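Tutorial sheet, problem 5. The four components below are modelled jointly, 704 residues in total.
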Amino acid sequence: MEGTPLGDGPTINTIAERAGVSIASVSRVLNGLPTRRETERKVLAAAEELGYVRNAVARSLKSRRTHQVAFAMADIGNPAYLAMLREIQPVLKAAGYRLVLHSTDAVVADEIDVLHSLGERYVDGLIMSPLRVTDAHLESLAAARTPVVVIGSVPEGTRADNVRADSRTGVRLAVDHLHALGRRRIAMVNGPLDTVPGAARGAAYREALEELGLPYDDDLVQIGDFYRAEGARAVAELLARVPDVDALMCANDLIALGALDVLRASGRRVPDDVAVVGMDDTDLAAASWPSLTSVSLGSAERGKAAAELLLQRLRGDDSAPRLVTVPPRLVVRASTAGNRADGPYDRKEGGV
Amino acid sequence: MEGTPLGDGPTINTIAERAGVSIASVSRVLNGLPTRRETERKVLAAAEELGYVRNAVARSLKSRRTHQVAFAMADIGNPAYLAMLREIQPVLKAAGYRLVLHSTDAVVADEIDVLHSLGERYVDGLIMSPLRVTDAHLESLAAARTPVVVIGSVPEGTRADNVRADSRTGVRLAVDHLHALGRRRIAMVNGPLDTVPGAARGAAYREALEELGLPYDDDLVQIGDFYRAEGARAVAELLARVPDVDALMCANDLIALGALDVLRASGRRVPDDVAVVGMDDTDLAAASWPSLTSVSLGSAERGKAAAELLLQRLRGDDSAPRLVTVPPRLVVRASTAGNRADGPYDRKEGGV
DNA sequence: TTGTATGCGTTATCAC
DNA sequence: GTGATAACGCATACAA
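Model answer (structure tokens):
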């Protein structure tokens, strides 16, 4: 195969000419429709010689299907979304769909843009995971002419499939676990309360304490942001205010890693002095030392479920919107149970 | 905005009818071409009422541009590729391109498929990062009618822009560092030698020792695979064979994490007894404890450079193929220098 | 079985 | 300035 000179590629017209048949015959052969042996031979030979490849755009215009699906994540830097992505990709690929990625940086306008752009029909469906769901989201969702699966919570009645985590139960699992270990001064290190996860996890913490009969203490709640450095700063403040805290319920793994840094720097042992729990069970939880007990909210499962739901819609299923809730799971590691197995090998991790 | 009944969306024909003008006028207005005030008003009103959105497929067929770019990574589970992705995405987005993701699982046939599928013209360009470059790659690359940027090494004369890491210098930096710390029994824990990185890093290790005047000792080289569990297994074997090793040069971060696990389990202190260096400087390196000294091969920079190179091509630049080499950088953390700053906050990490 | 002709939704080139 | 009309590349209903 010598270096093909750039320029316009061959079309079915080129082939038709070369093979001495009509474009209809070319199309038929290429689509496996019944044709005479000789015609088929000529067409395939011409196609081969010319290095013909079907133009996906023209084909989409005709068929009204692009074989593309979009995934809109709030933040491409967030390992939790990447975990979803890792599951979504192979499912779609196996079904013959390409994946178009959008990172909206949790900007509402960007998310609305993505929904609006569905009208451009460059994808057959969308999976989206918004950080918060506004009225604008719901309007655009209602107007969408393309199947959409939302990872996160949407109000009942929304015309979109919905895959949810259950962070309420998740926090409960964690707090119960800490309580069972004998911890009684369990603090909460949360992210901003105006985000969906922040609000949900904060409320769940309060509920969990209540059910355990533990008093709720404002001093034990520290708001920061969902990043490692912010988490560290928040925990430093917390320790200054409440030195005798014996457990930290962190609203995500990054915060928890920041917590480990600060606890270590302050000379506290984990978990002996302070037990730490994160959320999302990202790769980082298994990598840290001590390895981090974390509440898995099923990022991977949610991604997979969303992809499968969407595929069903793409196959023509137009039944009522579905709701899938993925149960949380507490993954106990060293940060709450020092002498238990670390379990760093229980997750698939990429190589090279 | 009431729930729009599903069905075919409006086209410029619908608008033309509604506005009482021709489709040509509609197109003009929509494209900002000079039109009478009144026409413009009618068209825009109709478009607004109908909730019109341009059909991207039809537009692409006509314009021969899809405003999509593909990124083909060897393994979506690998943090190093995700680091590239995180840089590529915003660059393309800012330039108005969508990102189509392919994970080829390092299967050569899949990679060739991706190259071949460029002929379908569903993307305007491609960034790919193959684990190895075969003749089949080069042939498909030569036949490509679309700009391609390869992250990795391609032979001179290949008609594709090329962004390279310099793992040779990278290994050298690491080995020099270990040597400077007084280590003399420096082992290499590598991945398979039939991969490009495996081969390059293995050779570089040998070279580095030579330049330092250290003897090369087969016993100090252990081949495993580029995963954490494999790395752990390899290091266990190594320790059994060479108990007095005082430094480990690991071919990537995952291997290094596995090494930390095993060293810890064997009662060795890091870095006091054994210093450990990883490669790729992934997020995991900063998260682990002790935090991991790692050679950054500039995954992020390479991704960014690749995206920018591709954008230049998409803007029409058809000059000779470019070669960009990103210099490696040693990021010293606790696994080789116990009392230095951990620096866990020097990298941007995702939140929530 | 095969060819002719039409449409998918846009953009662009003409005359008017 | 505006309206017919012809592509873009493919699939297909219909006629032959």
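Marking note: Chain B touches chain A through 81 residues (CB under 8 Å). Full credit if you identified this.
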